[in-house]
Design a protein that fits this description.
Layout (H helix, E strand, L loop, with lengths): L1 E6 L2 E6 L6 H8 L18 E4 L2 E4 L12 E3 L8 H12 L9 H14 L4 H4 L11 H10 L3
Helix pairs in contact: 2-3, 2-5
Length: 147
């Protein structure tokens, strides 16, 4: 199966089998390792990416479903003003300990900033952190989008 999409702002094509998830295609074929295989059932957020500006768990998306779409991974967040703001705020708040959840949290926070509405704790609800907690992440959200 052939797909063509925009990946972190650049055109990308692939030949893949229909059962290949977006997560595995990103990691195994494209070498983009920020999206992590956590639970692989859509509950932890470690594999979060933006698909046409919408937050999705890449473990639940078949790669062919991204055909024609724009995919932004944590590696591509610097191209977005909201992504830069999210990453800067997370760093300033020392929001993470081990960092396993950091890429997914960064993508989720960027999606929240792009949407421009809702509460930060609701936007980040699909992301699990097992070592730090969420205080620093929520402070970073407030820093990135004050008021």
């Amino acid at each position: 199966m052939h797909i063509a999409l925009t990946l972190n702002g650049a055109p990308a094509t692939a030949e893949l089998s229909p059962e290949t998830t977006l997560l595995h295609w990103l990691r195994e074929t494209r070498g983009l390792m920020a999206a992590k295989p956590g639970c692989e059932i859509g509950r932890c957020g470690a594999c979060a990416v933006l698909l046409d500006g919408r937050l999705v768990n890449a473990c639940l998306v078949l790669a062919w479903q991204a055909d024609g779409a724009a995919v932004i991974t944590a590696e591509g967040l610097e191209a977005l003003p909201q992504g830069r703001a999210a990453r800067a705020a997370l760093g300033e708040e020392s929001a993470f300990q081990c960092g396993y959840c950091a890429p997914g949290m960064s993508v989720a926070l960027t999606a929240w900033l792009l949407a421009g509405q809702g509460e930060a704790h609701e936007a980040l609800a699909g992301n699990l952190c097992r070592c730090t907690g969420y205080g620093g992440v929520l402070r970073a959200a407030a820093r990135a989008r004050p008021g």
